[in-house]
Cation efflux protein transmembrane domain-containing protein (Halalkalibacter okhensis), 270 residues
Amino acid sequence: MIFFDGLYSLVSVILSLLSLLVAQFIKKGDKMSFPYGKEMLEPVVIIIKYAVILLLCIITLITAIVSLLSGGQETSVGQALIFAFVNTIGCVGVFILLTKNKGESGFVQAEANQWKMDTLISGAVLIGFITALLISFTPFKYLVPYVDPVMVLIVVGYFLKTPIVEITKTFREVLEMSADQSIEAKIKKVITPIESKYQISESILRIAKVGNKLFIDIDFILGPQSKMVTIADQDKIREEIIQHTKDLVYKKWLTVSFTNDKKWAEKVFA
């Protein structure tokens, strides 16, 4: 368990360094090579992070099963307690710091999840070795070697869900699938009054979240009953959309188009 906890912490630091390097790279503008920005790198790196954690969990799970079947693992409980206590305090500190500053950054949210897992692992180690120490003073002290692999099975089994869920969620961003329904509902709430004001018959809304950037594509389809929409009106509408979506604290890539023919809103042509 100590080996898993220490290895997880080491991997966490290495992956955090990777996130930091990529975040710095994303900030550097390069519109020639990346006309739509570099935000796509964020979900790719997050998938790599969780894939490494998932692999580590699976390998550790197999090792724990082998250890359990071969008679358990002898442990120096006293030294283990000191390690677990110090590690738990350190992980709690980092997790609290990240939670206070995570905002809407995918990188920081992934880091917070990563250190939350590390905190709970370290806490489980501490509780496990306290239990082992108490058992060693009872007639059941022969069970002490089994405490370590059992702890690994419980902790790793519990945490297998997190990387699987996060990989699935982040993979949606790589595929540029629709953003969360709450985001779509918020933007629809903004454009509905605009449709009423200018008597716009229909609109097509497309939203995709990639990293910390929100791509918003709106096509307003005008009809015979629609009011005249001048260039000034169009800019006013764009400004209104931006102002009313400020609470969506992502970088926004806004595209607003106006057409009399719905076919131009379909976007795909042979």
